[in-house]
Amino acid sequence: MEFSRDQFLEEGYVILRQVIPPQELDGLRRAYERLVERQRVIWARERGPDDPPGGAWETNAQPRLNLGLLAGQIDAQTVDAVEIWLHENTQGVSSRLLGVDDAAVTEMMLMCNPVRDHETGGHRGWHRDFYPPHTAPLQGYADDIIENGPRYVQWNLPLYDDDVLWVVPGSHARLNTAEENAAMNDDARTPVPGAVQTHLAAGDGVAYILPLLHWGSRYNAKMRRTIHGGFSEYTTHKDLPYLEHLSPASQESFHRWNGRSRQKFEQTEAALRAAIDGNGTAFKAALGRLHPGRGEKGGLLSTIFLSKSAKRIHHLKSPEFDSLPEQERLWAESIHPMTLQWGRPLADRFSRQEAGALWARFKFVDDLLQADEDQWTPGFQGEETRYYFDRIPADLSVEAFLATL
Fold first, then answer.
1. How far is it, in rounded angstroms, from Cα 166 to Cα 84?
2. Domain co-membership, 251 together with 362
3. Which of 142, 157, 304, 384 has the least CB density, counted as fewest CB within 10 Å?
């Protein structure tokens, strides 16, 4: 497919036509609809006592399937729902957009229409797909993207015509403008200045760089089946129980991606252990192995990600873990390789004493990323927090962290 990567990097998104070859569209629709039907049976079975008969299918503003959680439902009739993620028009294009040889699929989902209109636009308005207390301030992402290019590309790939998604071109590499903040503070569920609506025909696709400012528009009962997910250099560990149904080339790709991810897992541990040991030389070397070729800004973003990993490990090894707020427990358990978060599998590599020492090393970074009082910036996920949403403090750098080791 033809496109301008330079334009993609500048605007933060690209619309591509007929990503799904027209002759494959009907078969892909059938595969995904089978998955929807099977999932609806599960949702009905799992409904709460006060829920309607269909459970989440009837109550959710955007019923969503996660193929990673549907392992038992991927078979010869539905395997095309996975295979589309390995097509040259998705995986191949994503590799070119990211500037890597072999992009790995991370998440594979399907967004569906609700059974009735949700005029408030669902669960959120304009937003960027991250929450700084769990990742990094926006400046960390923007500086890294400008210096090194994106680490992740996300896709919407509709099986039926879809104009739900709006984007703000260029917002992936800068902070909010005063006009955008004023508009979102006034009404976060209407177009902001400069916003563009993506009009996608069935089979088209839009690929975009997080943290692009975007809005899911209004969720209504119009038929919607939009494939959603993304690519990075590595993926989550997968048991792959449906591997036998994939083509030999796709099987090899998943094995290769998982092998690379296991290596990244080991490299993350090595960086954290270098910090525990107070070995700045070893830490810098480990940082270089984690993200080869990324410059100073990329190294700082990775260091911030590692500080979040240290905090998660500290929580998971704490005897008070079960008394933490539910959201904090879920966050600590979650796996998100793009930000070097490996959940409990990584925490299990450290003793409670090591986890305490690790957190003591990285608390310097965590403290600098917080203000004295709660704050809020429009256009983000989550709630008010002491963590900075926008800027990285001027006195936070990799060298400043190394000086504390």
1. 24
2. no
3. 384
Is 158 found in the same domain as 44? Answer: yes
DSSP string, 59-90: H-SS-EEEGGG-GGG-STTTTHHHHGGGSIII
What is the H or E stretch that residue 119 is in?
none
CA distance 11 to 184: 20
Map tokens 């040991």 to a residue.
277
Domain hosting residue 42, numbered range: 5-255
d(CA 131, CA 136): 8
pTM above 0.90, yes or no: yes
pLDDT tens, 35-81?
999 999 999 999 999 999 999 999 998 999 999 888 789 999 999 99
- Same domain? For 71 and 89 the reply is yes
CA atoms within 13 A on the CB side of 251: 8
Q: Give the torsion through C-alpha atoms of 342, 346, 347, 349, to 10 deg.
A: 180
For the stretch 157-203, pLDDT in tens is 999 999 999 999 999 999 999 999 999 999 999 999 999 999 999 99
Cβ(181)–Cβ(132) below 8 Å: no
Amino acid at 85: W
Do 273 and 178 belong together in one domain? no
For residues 207 and 287, membership in a common domain is answered with no
Tally of structural domains, the chain: 2
Letter for the amino acid at 395?
A: D
5: phi then psi, degrees, rounded to nearest 5: -65, -35
Q: Are residues 231 and 278 in the same domain?
A: no
Last residue of a domain, one of 232, 255, 278: 255
168: three-class secondary structure by DSSP: coil
Domain boundary among 209, 231, 255: 255
